[in-house]
Structures are given as structure tokens and as C-alpha cells.
Amino acid sequence: MSETNQAEERAIIETVLGYCDNGGTHLQPDVMQIPVTEYTDPERLNREIEVLFRQFPIIVGHASALAAPGDFFTHNSTGVPMLIARNRVGEVKAFLNVCRHRGARVEQQPCGKANTFSCPYHSWTYDLDGNLRGLPKDTNFGDIDKSELGLVALPAFERFGLIWVRPSPSSAPVDIDAWVAPMAEQLESLDLKSHVVFKEWAVKREMNWHIALEGFQEQYHFCSAHKNTACSAYLDNQGVFLDQYPHVRHAVPLAGIEKLKDQPKDEWSYRRNFMTQNYLFPCNFVQSMTDHVYIHTIIPTGQTSCIFQCQMLIPEAANTEKAEKYWQANYNVVQEVFDEDFVIGESIQAGLNTGANQHFTIGRYESCLQMARRSLADALAGRLKV
Ligand code: FES
Ligand SMILES: [Fe+2]
Question: What percent of the chain has pLDDT over 70?
């Protein structure tokens, strides 16, 4: 682990132990108000899609989905049909999954292995770099320049065992390393590259996407919404939020952390004593538990609905019955906990248009909501660029 990350984690532990001694917790300077129209205004949603889901890279999966050359998967939930593949020399490539002849979706399968992609309409065929390799009966098709009719490429990156794609082909450059820099050392230390996917799932829920996102941005709700599930595992309403603009590291201490007071600092383990909810702007979380990690992606599918996609990553394949049972039990718990959040989220949606609230009031405890709202406002105003 890098010294910077170690110093950051030691400082987080010291902060929490200080809170335990003095009865404090992490606070923002003031309350924040969020206008309810930010959840209900269709023009706002269009702008969010156009900016947040077209101009910024988002995590689309774990690198193991593209373990070998020729492996591919498709991705449609942003509203942009995308095809993501590993080419012959091992690079991750992403394309608009749209045929250059007359626009049909080229690859239909959710995932698979291929040497070439052949469009179902008239069988134009593309290679793993998106080049147009051939078309049936091409002698009399007419005069075309095949080199100009390859699949349209999207910026794609593989970092820390995760795959990022910007769902828009615009020529604006993406400096992914600068973008993830504030979190790079922490993400590197998780060693996600060597992890494997234990489960992945996607659920569509009836709530504006911000409501789903906000469920992962504070721990103030744990001991009411998750009274019989997550509450007892953590210190009540304790958390440390590091503003890693535009991202946020949100460290939530486990219930037994106070025992570290009796240990020498160089024996402290951050990982064994925290759950970390890393918000990666605009729509991802890397949620690190003591021994495994969840990658969340939340994408609007309409004004009042969103899709929640999750991958559960474990350090090595569950090859024994005992391991399988252990990870399955963890999976069952998160399903229950996330469902508790989503049921409440759908109830928020149901009340949004009642006029009961003109604003939501975000308390000083709810730091990641406040920080994330600033990043969102900056992006929508054009002040934040990738
Ligand atoms: S639309 Fe794809 S080959 Fe015609
Ligand atoms: Fe929750």
C-alpha cells in the first residue's frame, strides 16, 4: 500500500477515535437545501443525461468480463447502445453498437466471445477494432471507402481492474488518470484486478436516480432504515467524508473500532475496521467491505425510474462449499439491506409531487450528499470537466 493512502487511512482512524472520545461526528458547516424540482423537472433530467451520462466516463464493468481477446459485452442502460470488447493485442475498445450501413444494432448478445461482429440486417462485418472488414456482394454495392465506415469508437479505459467508458464519441479528450487521481491510491490498494465477480445483478426501481444515489451517501439512516440489519455492524451515525472532488471517500467505522485505542498505530488495519462507500462521480460507487467489494452503477431510465446495477467482487473464486456459503450469506444480507433502501426510495418518489416539500433539507451529517451536489452543480454549469 502506498504511504499516502496509509497516512490517509491512519488519519481517518484517528479522527474516528477522537469522535468516540469527545462525542463528535463529521459535520458539514451548514444544512443544505435541495429543490424538489431537481428530482421532478424533465428539462433538468435531459440536461443531466446530456452532461453527466454523455460527457463523463462511467464504470461499465469489471475487467474479468473481458478476460481474453475477443471477449465482449454490450451495455444499453445509458440509452446509448455500446459494444465493449478486448482486441487482439489486449486493449479494451468500446464502440457505438450501431451499424454504419443503415443503423441496426450490430451485436445483440449481452456478452460472449467473437472474432468479428456481424450485423443481423445485411451482414456487414466488423473486427475487434471496429474496422469494417467486409460486406456481402460488395463488388456491385457501389463505391464506398470501407476505412471510413468502421464502428464509431468511444473512449474506453481499464484502470484498477475496472472498465470505464464515456458514452459519447465527441472529440473532447478524456484524461482518465487525472480524473481518478484523487482516489487512485485507494483504488489501487483494493487490488480489484485480481478479484472475481461472485454475483452481478440489475434492478429497475420506481424512483428518480438521485434518490437511489443518495441512499449510499450518508450513514445517518443506518439505525432507522436498517435497524435490524446493518445498524448493529457500525458505530451509530459515525463517518468520515473526504472530499476528493468531484469524488468522495466515505469511511464508515465498524462497531468494534474502539479496540484500536489499545493497539500500536503501526498495527492498525483500516480495512478490517471500516466499510468505505467511495462515490465516483457521476453515478458509481466502489463500496469496499472488510473482505469484498461492490461496484454500483445508478442510471436514470426516466424521470421516475432508474436502474441499479451491482457487481459483487470477491478476492478469489469460491471453490469450496464453505466459501460459496459464506459469500452467498453476504450477498443475501446486502440484498436485504439494499431492498430496505429501495422500498424507502420508492416511497419518496410517490410523495415527490404532493407539494409537501419545496426543498429537501440535508443535514450537517449528510456530507456526501452535500459534496456530490456541489460536483453535480459544477458539472451542469460547465465548471467541471473530465
Ligand atoms: S444495417 Fe447493418 S448491415 Fe445493413
Ligand atoms: Fe441504506
Answer: 100
Phi first, then psi: give them for residue 385, nearest 5 degrees: -125, 155
pLDDT digits (tens, 9 = 90+) for 309-346: 999 999 999 999 999 999 999 999 999 999 999 999 99
Residue 350 Cα to ligand 1 midpoint, Å, equals 43
Joined grid coordinates for residue 156:
474506453
> Ligand 1: does its nearest atom lie under 6 Å from the Cβ of 104?
yes
CB neighbourhood size of 272 (10 A): 12
Same domain, 137 and 276: no
| Neighbouring-strand partners of residue 305 | 302
- Closest-CA residue, ligand 1 atom 4, reads 122
Domain boundary among 116, 133, 165: 165
Same domain, 357 and 224: yes
- Residues with Cβ < 8 Å from 249, sequence gap 6 or more? 8, 183, 186, 241, 242, 276, 278
Number of H helices, E strands in the chain: 8, 20
Amino acid at 361: T
What residue's CA is closest to ligand 1, atom 1? 102
Q: Which residues surround ligand 2, an ion (CB under 5 A)?
A: 215, 341
Shortest CA distance to 168 belongs to which of 45, 44, 296, 58?
58
User: Over the stretch 354-382, which tens digit does the pLDDT of each residue have?
Assistant: 999 999 999 999 999 999 999 999 999 99
Task: Point out the ligand 1 atom lying closest to the alpha carbon of residue 119.
Answer: 2
Bridge partner residues of 165 (DSSP): 58, 156
Q: Which of helix, strand or coil describes residue 127?
A: strand
Contacts of 341 (CB under 8 A, 6+ apart): 212, 215, 216, 221, 225
Does 385 map to a domain? no
Residue 9 lies in a domain: yes
Number of domains comprising the chain: 2
Question: d(Cα 83, Cα 354) in Å, to the nearest integer?
Answer: 41
Q: Which pTM does this prediction carry?
A: 0.96
Residue 330 to residue 337: CA distance in whole angstroms: 11
> In terms of residue numbers, what domain contains 107?
58-165
